[in-house]
C-alpha cells in the first residue's frame, strides 16, 4: 500500500499541511478501535482530498464508502457555503463513531449520512453532483461509475481510491482475485471512456482523478 521509501515518505508528510486536531483524534481512535484501520484516508491523502475539494469548490459532493468519516470531513472542507455532502456506507456498526466525529455537521445538514446499499441509494439521488469520491467495495467500482456519470454536473469530478491496489494491478492477476480484477477493469474502463479525461495519481494506494468533459 505504501510505495515510497519510509524516509522519503516521512519527508513528504513533514512537508504537508498538518491535519486538523479533530482528524488527528479520529485517526488515532480508528487505529485503536476499528478493524482494518488502513482503510482510513489518513494525513497525506486527507490533505490531498481537502485541497482538491477546495480547488473544485463543490456545492454537492457524493461519497461512496464512509468508513469512520475521515475522508468526508476532508472533502467537506471545500464545500461552498450552503453546500452538502452525501456519504453512504453499509456498516451500521460504525454509526456511533460517525455520530461522534461528524455530529455537528450531521445536525446542521452539511453532511447527510445514508446507511445502506449504495447501488440502491444512488439512483434516487438528484443530479448536479460536483464531486464524487469512490472508496467502497472494489467489485462495484465500475458500477458506481456508471451510476454517477450521468448525475455529474458539467465539468464534475470523480475521485476513485485504491486503484493501484498495492501494485497488484501490474502483476499477473489470478481469476480468484476479484478485487484486483475489478480495479484493473475499472482503470481500463475509465481510460477508454471518451466522456471523461483522467489522471492516475500515485498517491498512497493510487487515486484516479476523473473530469467529465
List the helices and strands and how they pair.
Blueprint: H1 6-14, H2 21-33, H3 42-56, E1 60-64, H4 70-76, E2 84-89, H5 95-108, E3 111-115, H6 118-121, E4 129-134, H7 141-149, E5 152-161, H8 178-192, E6 196-201, E7 207-212
Parallel strand pairs: 1-2, 1-4, 2-3, 4-5
Antiparallel strand pairs: 5-7, 6-7
Helix pairs in contact: 3-4
Written description of the protein model:
This protein is of the alpha/beta class. The chain has 8 helices and 7 strands, in the order H-H-H-E-H-E-H-E-H-E-H-E-H-E-E. Strand 2, helix 5 (95-108) and strand 3 form a beta-alpha-beta unit. The chain is globular, with a radius of gyration of 16 Å. Helix 3 (42-56) runs parallel beside helix 4. The protein has helices at residues 6-14, 21-33, 42-56, 70-76, 95-108, 118-121, 141-149, 178-192, and strands spanning 60-64, 84-89, 111-115, 129-134, 152-161, 196-201, 207-212. The chain has one domain: Rossmann fold (3-Layer(aba) Sandwich). The protein starts with 5 loop residues before the first helix and ends with a strand.
Written as H for each helix and E for each strand, in order along the chain, the element string is HHHEHEHEHEHEHEE
- Largest sheet, strands/sense/barrel: 7 strands, mixed
**First-residue to last-residue Cα separation:** 31 Å
* Rg over CA atoms: 16 Å
Q: What is the arithmetic mean of pLDDT?
A: 95
Tally of alpha and pi helices: 8
- What coarse outline follows from CA principal-axis ratios? globular
Low-confidence stretches: none
> Looking at CATH, which topology would you report?
Rossmann fold
**CATH architecture type:** 3-Layer(aba) Sandwich
